[in-house]
Design goal:
Elements (H helix, E strand, L loop, with lengths): L3 H6 L27 H24 L7 E4 L1 H11 L7 E4 L6 H5 L9 H10 L2 H9 L7 H15 L11 H11 L6 H10 L33 H17 L14 E5 L13 H4 L4 E5 L3 H7 L1 H18 L5
Parallel strand pairs: 1-2, 3-4
Protein name: Abhydrolase domain containing 18
Pfam families: ABHD18
């Protein structure tokens, strides 16, 4: 699909619809509101795999040069895909940043999270504190190295998923299918291995890590009302989100000079305070700031997005004229 602007620049666009969006969303999902924390991780893992397949197909069909871009979550997903592409490629993420943790814990969208349910699950299930936190110490490691080990950990305990956890055979098959997708990159495996085990909001995260029954649960109702519970739940959510979505946990793109990031100075949806910047994670990339917020930038600044796309492609053509 190509717009009038694309045609003027001699470019074409192939649009990938995210899992859980449009025609790909579950029937019981309300619009784009993801039902489970895990859905975001599964979405990322699937998109890495699908983007790799599409890029390889475009290469075989003779299209060149190739690049990736997106706005908001689309920009973040484009960034994920490029971290797992083994060649130099232009990347133009617009209105996205280095991690999804701040989006769901401090940004505007944090108000849409069902914290009451998550706090209840966190209070009742002691394994969040006792076991899951240990898995989150990997933050900052390379996703290619991290993926296989986490897949092994999940596989070792997979047989213990049973009626105690109300998982049907079809659900178990879907989880295993996410782990072994036949050629998925390790970055995708990392997201899928953790994502497949954080279903039903937080609830089934411990089940993929080992047998768990009523004897392991907190039963004191007062636990659900302890003063620090909200802060603990937010901290846990931030840690899980950083583990699975922080760009520092994924490989650095082959040539960061081909990355042009476009950010809004007053973006309340994607807070940049307190998290690593993309310049720190991807040395050599360019960040362009525009005036306005998330919505106003999306509605009125698309000419700036297009210019960034043209500039990134021009850099590629100058730097790699024979890479085809």
């Amino acid at each position: 699909m190509a717009s009038a602007h694309d045609q003027e620049a001699g470019m074409a666009s192939l649009l990938l619809e995210n899992p859980y969006y449009g025609y790909r969303k579950p029937r019981d999902q309300l619009r784009s509101s993801l039902k489970n924390v895990s859905d975001l991780f599964v979405m990322g893992g699937a998109l890495i795999l699908e983007s790799t397949v599409l890029l390889r197909w475009l290469e075989r069909e003779g299209y060149w040069p190739l690049g990736m871009t997106g706005i908001s979550m689309g920009g973040y997903m484009a960034s994920l895909a490029v971290t797992n592409w083994p060649k130099p490629i232009p990347l133009i993420p617009c209105l996205s940043w280095s991690t999804a943790s701040s989006v769901f814990t401090t940004g505007v969208l944090s108000k849409a999270v069902n914290w009451t349910q998550l706090e209840k699950q966190y209070a009742i299930n002691s394994r969040y504190e006792e076991e899951i936190i240990k898995l989150l110490e990997y933050c900052g490691a390379d996703s290619f190295k991290m993926g296989p080990k986490l897949v092994t950990n999940v596989d070792e305990h997979f047989h213990e998923l049973s009626e105690d956890h109300k998982l049907s055979v079809s659900q178990c098959s879907r989880v295993d299918g996410g782990r072994d997708c036949g050629g998925a990159t390790d970055g995708a495996e990392h997201l899928l291995s953790l994502g497949s085990s954080v279903g039903a909001s937080f609830e089934t995260l411990p089940t993929a890590l080992g047998g768990y029954n009523a004897h392991g649960r907190r039963t004191d109702p007062a636990e659900c009302c302890r003063p620090s519970l909200h802060k603990e739940s937010i901290s846990f959510m931030k840690a899980v989100m950083d583990e699975c979505t922080h760009m520092a946990n994924f490989s650095v793109p082959v040539d960061t000079s081909l990355i042009v990031v476009v950010q809004a100075k007053e973006d309340a949806y994607v807070p940049r305070t307190g998290v690593l910047s993309l310049q720190e994670i991807w040395p050599g990339c360019e960040v362009r700031y525009l005036r306005g917020g998330h919505i106003s930038a999306y509605l009125f600044k698309q000419n700036i997005f297009r210019q960034a796309i043209y500039d990134a492609f021009d850099r590629f053509c100058v730097k790699y004229p024979n890479l085809h």
